[in-house]
Design a protein that fits this description.
This is CubicO group peptidase (Beta-lactamase class C family). It comes from Streptomyces eurocidicus (Streptoverticillium eurocidicus). The chain is of the alpha+beta class. About 30% of the residues lie in helices and about 20% in strands. The chain is built from six helices and seven strands; from the N terminus they run H-E-E-H-H-H-H-H-E-E-E-E-E. The longest helix has 14 residues, at about 45-60.
């Protein structure tokens, strides 16, 4: 198995590509003191996505890339799909078609998250963004050096937003 299939490559400039093993990333995160007690604050981090990728590997016995998608960003939230596939996903998730209601309710339990823009709120893996029409879009985005995407769907049957 190549190292690329087992870890995360971080690039600030193409000439400076560095490989980071998932366990090393988690170790780095754990060496830092928490900025607040659990439930007392919020700050975005990809650490939980790295942990989720490690769990996928442990449970399946296969690399994250083999199970989900080959990406040099590894489990830090990257998805490989088509625009129409993402729109189906973005519409089905907030409509309650993919998860039990209790799990979706937990994702919709949000805290203020100005990191994602004015009025944005964040729940586990889901961002709510106020719309100029008064509605709310639910979704998520991501960025790795050289790429950025944002997308979501307005609830109550409104059409999905374009990435």
């Amino acid at each position: 198995m190549s190292r690329r299939g087992r870890g995360f490559v971080y690039v600030t400039h193409l000439a400076d590509a560095r490989y980071y093993a998932p366990g090393g990333l988690v170790g780095t995160a754990l060496r830092h003191k928490a900025e607040f007690d659990p439930g007392k604050g919020w700050k975005y981090s990809n650490t939980n996505y790295v942990l989720a990728g490690l769990i996928v590997q442990k449970v399946t016995g296969r690399s994250f890339a083999e199970e989900v998608a080959p990406s040099w960003g590894w489990a830090a939230g990257q998805m490989v799909s088509t625009g129409s596939g993402l729109n189906r996903f973005r519409t089905a998730l907030p409509a309650g078609d993919l998860l039990p209601e209790a799990r979706l309710d937990r994702m919709r339990t949000t805290v203020p998250a100005g990191y994602f823009g004015p009025g944005a709120r964040y729940g586990p893996g889901l961002v709510s963004t106020p719309l100029s029409c008064g509605g709310v879009a639910w979704g998520h985005g991501g960025s790795i050096p050289g790429y950025e995407t944002r997308g979501g769907a307005a609830i109550e049957g409104a059409p999905p937003m374009s990435p």
